[in-house]
Design goal:
mainly alpha; single chain
Length: 153
């Protein structure tokens, strides 16, 4: 198989000779170069992307919270306006009922007054008619009595 010891195959053996030092130096140079040219810029781009993503997410959350707060304020304002509208509606209704009651009471009083005036007028007319009838009855009775007395005398 090869020149090495018989216990291990030759392809598994690494020989440590003077050529290992330039290989290590080349390897370290490549690591430093790749780190500077590839890994750091790649990590920087990933970090910037992550910061933008998380920044946008945070900004979106902040905006969403703001809009939710505005929505809640809007709902509260609508509820308040509805309650104010209902309160005003009840106030107007109460005022209308009060005016209606006052108008009805005034109409009732006017009707009672008119009824009483009509009763008084009718009563006065009845009294006047009775007085006239009484006077006419006395006059007729006087005329009848005079005619009877004249006719018998």
């Amino acid at each position: 198989m090869g020149n090495g010891p018989k216990c291990c195959p030759s392809f598994l053996m690494i020989s440590l000779d003077s050529s290992i030092i330039p290989a290590i130096l080349i390897f370290l140079t490549l690591v430093v170069a790749l780190n500077k040219l590839l890994f750091q810029p790649l990590l920087r781009v990933q970090a910037e992307r992550e910061s933008r993503t998380t920044g946008l997410m945070a900004q979106t959350r902040k905006r969403l919270d703001h809009h939710l707060e505005l929505f809640n304020q809007y709902q509260t304002a609508i509820k308040s306006c509805r309650m104010e509208g209902y309160r005003r509606q009840e106030q107007v209704r109460a005022e209308a009922l009060k005016r209606r009651a006052e108008t009805l009471a005034q109409a009732r009083m006017n009707a009672e007054k008119l009824t009483q005036e009509s009763r008084d007028s009718i009563q006065a007319q009845v009294q006047a008619a009775k007085a006239k009838l009484d006077s006419d009855a006395r006059e007729i009775a006087g005329g009848i009595a005079a005619s009877i007395l004249r006719g018998t005398a």
